[in-house]
Each structure stands twice: as structure tokens, then as C-alpha cells.
Amino acid sequence: MSAQGVTEKLCRFATELRYKGIPKEAIGEAKRSILDTVAVAVAGSQEPGGAGRIAIELVREMGGVPTCSVIGGGFKTCSVNAAFANGTSGHTLDFDDTTIPINHYNSALVPAILTLAEETRVSGKKTLEAYVAAYEVGARIGQSLKGTMPGYFFMGFHPVGTWPTLGISVGCSKLLDANVTQMKVAMGIASSAACGLRRDFGTNTKPLHAGYAARNGLVAAKLAKKGFTAHTDILDDDPEASPGSSMYFSFPRVFSGGDNYDLAAMVEGLGKTLHLVSGVNWKKFRTGSVAGQIPVDIVLDAMQKHGFTAKQVEHVECSTPRQVVDVAVFHDPQTGDQARYSIEYQVAAALLDRTMGIEQHREERVRRADVREMMKKVHVYERKDISPASYDKDSMMVKMVFKLKDGREYTEEGGRPIKGTPSLPLTDEDLANKYRDCVRRAIPDAQVEKSLKLIGNFEELKDVGELMEMLKGKA
Length: 475
Known about the structure:
mainly alpha; 2-methylcitrate dehydratase PrpD; four-stranded mixed β-sheet; 21 helices
């Protein structure tokens, strides 16, 4: 289905959005997004050999006017470099949330918005305006690309570095007080910087996609504000353009690989409903999205319900939908990055450690003999009775069979939501405890509690730089 003027409508919505017009529920979700993303970015910045740590070392070498805090880095640099480092740290652990449509949007969006907010010395309310506008525009672009797991995902694109770049350019433009035309230009610039391939899953380059999106969206906004030019209707179809001409290739057409998009969906109900209100999937466990969250949740629940231990397990069968199998590509992981995308490892480590957090993804844990032996007992299959079109990431569509050495057998499948999804969200206390556990790795305990309070009252901040200075940590 085609529509005209969607770029204009989205940018006009974003420029006109005001804090007082944002529903209370959306403000609450925005603050929870900031809390969770900051937590995992700080933790990611401290990961030895991780993408965040290496990105921080690079931007330290690059220098830059010290106006913006490098989260967990202990120093300041220019906004462009800081956004790059902070975004990369935000996705380093893959402990960040999963937004709707399926993406790790916040790992790039929150660092970009907070970094530019610090540079421009704006208030918490103005920052929340920009965040909500960017989230809504980005989510609408993503949702318009058809499919529960859209075609671009199966074409090999990693969502984080792609359409989020356009949404981030909108949020950053709003912080810079851009007009509608400047914001449209920013989206045009950002569309040429959308990037990221799934082939790099299991390496440092996957979280780099979030760093690129944060940096590229911010740069697009700054260039547009300075008078840079770009196509101002990058989302729209040109009804008079002939196939093959440059005017034919709008961002949705190119990115979806053809006609697998719906422009009308981008603007349907615009200004009346916000995607943010429908909720975000918060990660209870450190895993590669659904590749681990669902099996780990089943393992821990089954062990508690049936009272068995890892030593009693003889064999585990895990049948998952195609979408999970396609992500969990490492069957014999050797690194923490690879382990995030290995159901065999996630199940084995959960059985042995009865948890799944940051420590379970250290390389030394991945290589230990006990987990290597347990992995041999885990067998993963694709569920042929679940079609890709019917897949529901909010419910347990994974079937697991636990066969014990004493002959007992337990089967667990479906029928209940996953902890952390909108159907069964993490509580404020759950997120606060996750924040404390992540942030204490770089920030003193007293500042952990103070920063937690600042985020809880984010709309009262006169200058977001107060929070960012704290998140920078010690030199």
C-alpha cells in the first residue's frame, strides 16, 4: 500500500511534539529505557576485550573537544566520538532491551540522545521530548517493513544499524531545534548511512552497529542544521519515477528489497498512539535476544518446578521456531560473543549455574570442561509445526524435553509469557537491581544510588550533563 508525504508528516509530528502532550505511560517507559540502556552501556564499557572497551580506547586516541562524557571511560570527547563509543558500549553485552518492532533500538538511540543533550546543555524534559519523538518515528519506519521478522532480516541486515539511524537523526534534530525541512534533510542523510550485516553476529562488529547508528544519526542532524543537502522525501515513493531511475529508490523500497513495505502504516494513527506505550522487552538474562531468553527461562523454571539438578540430566531436546534457529548459529562457541548465539551453551550454562548473566559470558566460562560436557547433552531442532508467520516472541513457543538419568522425563512448552516482555514486564525494582549490578562496575556505590535517583526523576533535571558527568566514571 502506498502513501504520499510520509517523510513530511513524520517530521512535522516530531517537531511539534511537546512534553506536556506525551502520555504519562510513555514518559515512564522512556525513563525505564534510559535506565536499562545506561546500565548495560556502563557494564559494556568495562568488558575486557569487548567492543565497547576497544571503541573507548580508539576515541581516547582520537581526542576531540571534551564536551561529552564517554560512559564508563573516565574522560570526555566531542559529541560524535562520544555517541560512537557510548552506542557501541550499549550493545556490547547484548543485555539491552528488544524494542517493537524487533530491534535493539535503544542501545543506539539512548546514547545518541543523551550525548547530544549533554553537549547542548538541555533539560530532562527537552531530552524526553526528543527521545519519544525519535522512538516513535523510528518504530513506525521499522513497523512499515512487513513481517513479524521482516524481509530485510532474512536478507542479512542487522536491524540495529539500519532504520534506527533515521529515527536517531530525528531525535537529534529535535534537540538542535531543527525545523521540518532540516529534519527531513537529516533523514535523507541518515538513510545513506544505514548499515549492518548479520554475518558479523558473534564478533565485536555486531555491537559496533549500534555505535555507527548513534554516531551517524547525530552527524546527519548536525550536517542538516548547517545547511547540508539531501533528498527531503527519502521515505516516499515517487509516482512518476520509472524503475531504475534514481528517484525510484526510496529508503523503504531499497531496504525491503522491493515492495515489502507499507507507507500508510508509517502514519496511521500518528499523534494518537505511541509505540512506546505498548511496552519494551527488557532482558532478564544476558543472551542474544530470543536465542537464549526463552530456553534459559524454561530451564530455570523447570529446575525449580521439578527439583532436578544439572548432574541428574542425561539429555535435553530443544525445539525452537525458525527465527530462533536462524539467530543461534554457534553450536560450538569459543568466545563470549559467540556464546550469546548458542542455544547449546545457554542451556548448558543455565543448568550448571542456575543463572545467566555477565559472568556466564566470560571466555574462561565458555571454555570450561563442565560446560563443554553439558553442551554435548543439548540437542537443538527447528519446530516444523510453528510457521515463521505465526511466531510470537512474547510467548513460550519453544518446546524442551528434559530426560534424567533416573528415567524421569519432563516436557515444557508454550502457554505463558516470558519475564521481561510487555505481557510480564520486569518491575521497577527488577530494573533498579539490574542497574545496580551493571553500573557498580565503573561507578562508586554512592554515585550508583544518586544516578539511579536522577534517572527516576529525569524530567526534573535542569541539565542532563549532571547525569552524564556521573556516568563517565573515574579517569
